[in-house]
Amino acid sequence: MKRLFGALVAAVLTLGILGATPVWAEEPSTAPSVTLKQAIASLKLDPGQTYNGFFEIENSGSTPFDLTAAVEYFTPGAINGERFTSEGRYTEIHNWVRLAKTEFAKVQPGATQRVDYTVEVPVDAPAGSQYTGINVAVKSGDVADEALGVVVSQQIQYRIYANVSGETITRGDVSAYNIPGWVKSGDLVTSMAVKNDGNTDFTAAGRLVVKSLFGREIYRTPEGEQVITFVFPEGESEVIELTMPAPKIGIYRVTQLTELAGRVIEKTGLVLVAPIWLVVVAIIGLLAAVALITILIVRLVKKQRNYDKKDLHSASR
Question: Are 135 and 159 spatial neighbours (Cβ–Cβ below 8 Å)?
Fold first, then answer.
């Protein structure tokens, strides 16, 4: 019996070893990894001014690489920034930027490379916002990922948002908004979009104030939790949402407050918060009440007519 048990154990162990899938340690990837320490520069410039700036690129990978830098328009895909991917009224700064150096050799892992640039603002520069970018890329064909057997290229963009002094126009409005009339379940969510009619960009902040029908405040977006959106000149923001978490059943006066361009814009609407079944029950109850009142009125009318007939008959005698 013991021999039989020992043979079974040995067979199970042997099958386990033969059937096991070997696990090999993965080779660390040598693909380049470029980190931009600051993605956007917000500059205030004057006509005729020369501005000297810089940003830093970190090699956050495990292999050295060469870098190239070049002044470029915005790369496609920027939210509402597609208008700045080519020459135009708000991209003249593209021709004002000069790089001190465009080639950087063998940036070591963990090292930081500084990229210096100069903005030479013309004396007749238009007032308002200007946009351009500086693209930094791993030099094409310089780094090969041996694990994948391919040449790897990576590129990131440092963006310059500049405002030139002069006759700037900061003007905007709420271009669209939605306050739902009926919330069946979950959160109360409103939405809005902001347009910019001026020649300089701005940020807009949205918040909610919810009150009962009698004016008692039920909810207000907490300080610091306003929804912020950036709006380019002569453009429109993406649609943003404002939320009140899970309100109770009731009817509320909901106000969207939008702070933009130095003023506050209010949009107000009534919102019913109730599940479908409750609304159905309320409608049925209302219809039943209307039907009952109608029946009572009909009966009263008939009764009154009978009284009138009796009075008329008595008078004829």
Answer: no
State both tokens at 206: 């949205």
Tokens of 99: 């790089």
Hey, what amino acid is at 186? G
Q: Strands 263-273 and 182-183, how do they pair? A: parallel
pLDDT tens digit string along 257-311? Answer: 999 989 999 999 999 999 999 888 889 999 999 999 999 998 888 877 776 666 6
Cα–Cα dist 293/315, whole Å? 33
pTM for the full predicted model: 0.73
Residues whose CB is less than 8 angstroms from the CB of residue 227 and which lie 6 or more positions away in sequence, other chains included: 205, 206, 207, 240, 241, 242
- pLDDT tens, residue by residue, 208-257: 999 999 999 999 999 999 999 999 999 899 899 999 999 999 999 999 99
What is the dotted CATH code of the domain comprising 172-273?
Answer: 2.60.40.10
Q: List the chain domain ranges.
A: 34-164, 172-273
Rounded distance, CA 292 to CA 298, Å? 10
